[in-house]
Amino acid sequence: MSWLPLYNAWMICLAIVSFFLWKLLGVLLLIFALFMSFSYLVKESLGNMTHYVYAFWLFIMTEGLIFGSLFLAVLWNETCFSESISSFLELPFLGCFLLIGSSLTVTAYHHSVGTKYGSLFLLSTLLLGASFVVLQIFEMYDCECDWVYSVYYAACFSTVGLHFLHVIIGLIGLSVIFIFGDVNLNVFYNDVIIWYWHFVDYIWLLVYLVVYLS
Q1: Is the pLDDT of residue 206 over 90?
Q2: pTM score > 0.70 for this model?
Q3: I need a surface site. Which of 83, 99, 188, 212 has the fewest CB within 10 A?
Q4: Burial class, 22, CB count within 10 angstroms (exposed 0-12 / middle 13-18 / buried 19+)
Q5: So where does this one cross the membrane (predicted)?
């Protein structure tokens, strides 16, 4: 049993309290804690330790419940006067193609680990994911509504923002594989990061359906 989940839970609790109380010290401690957690994960991934796949699927299940709660909040607070935060045929639609494309390239990478084409597929996934991040930044910059306008907009921005955070985390994980090499990392972490990226890709389709098309 690892101590890391309990440690991370307390650090996240500290960060949330600090955000509400506007305490900079708590945020700085969170950054330090994230660095320590990341360092431990890298060290662990380079070793031969026993891992349990079902723990990751429990994590995915909790993530799905969080997104499901936000989807419900968006649909519950939507009215006939509610307008989408962005046109569904513009940047969000392009984002669907970028993430679906990245899902295809990461699948190709997963089936070519250790070959000369593996790094090329992984680099393509990173470029597509980074393009999606840039696309989202432009979308938020051009958005004419604000999260303080109504509960509906707050729920929409929370949903899109949470997914944006997951994309960033996924890109960090893929970057670790790209930097350290797929043969140097534990196979478990390679699989987990790829599965996580698939989750991020396909949850975007639900975000697009609920936030932009509903």
Answers
A1: yes
A2: yes
A3: 83
A4: exposed
A5: 12-42, 54-76, 88-111, 117-138, 150-181, 193-213
Rounded CA separation 12/130 (Å): 26
Q: Are 4 and 40 a contacting pair, CB within 8 Å?
A: yes
How far is CA 104 from each of CA 165, 199, 202, rounded to the nearest angstrom?
21, 13, 12
Residue 117 near residue 124, CB atoms below 8 Å = no
For the beta carbon of residue 82, count every other beta carbon within 10 angstroms. Answer: 16
pLDDT tens per residue across span 33-74: 777 777 766 666 555 555 567 778 888 888 899 999 999 998
Q: Rounded distance, CA 123 to CA 25, Å?
A: 37
